[in-house]
Design a protein that fits this description.
Shape: rod-shaped
Distance between the termini: 99 Å
Strand order of the largest sheet: 1-2-3
Number of domains: 1
Number of helices: 2
Number of strands: 3
Largest sheet: 3 strands, mixed
Length: about 120
Amino acid sequence: MKFRFAMGVVVLGLAVAPLAGYAADKAAEKKEGMVPRVKEITEDSTVTSKIKAEFAKDKAVSALGISVDTNKGVVTLSGNAKSREEAEKAVAIAKSTAGVSSVKNEIKVTSSTKK
């Protein structure tokens, strides 16, 4: 009786072992795939932070009025600028920042004609 039970456990163990190995392989593949994505997100965040810091230092560009979004090195600028010159300066700052592959300019120029 004990022999039959022991053989059943051994057979069951041999049947389940490949599934455990498969699950471990899939978990390792998933983890390896996450590392480049985390690095990419970190690099994009760094680029965005550098551009916003340059906007804050530059008196001609509103750091609050212009939004910066970076995805895989592509920077998208949006928001409102007071003049075409401000928008162009924001684009120039973004293009000169390390890690930027291209810049999409979606900035709207709003004229301030308040009386």
